[in-house]
Amino acid sequence: MASNEEVVREAYRLAEGDVLDGDGFRALFTEDGTFNDVPNSLTFRGDQIPHALAGLASAFPDIHRELLGVHAFGEVVAVELRIQGTHLGEFPTPVGAIPPTGRRIDVPTADLWYLREGKIETFNCYNAANVWLAQLGATPDFRSAIEAAKTAAGA
Question: Which of 10, 59, 134, 142 would disulfide-bridge 91, Cβ 3.0–4.6 Å?
Answer without folding.
Answer: 59
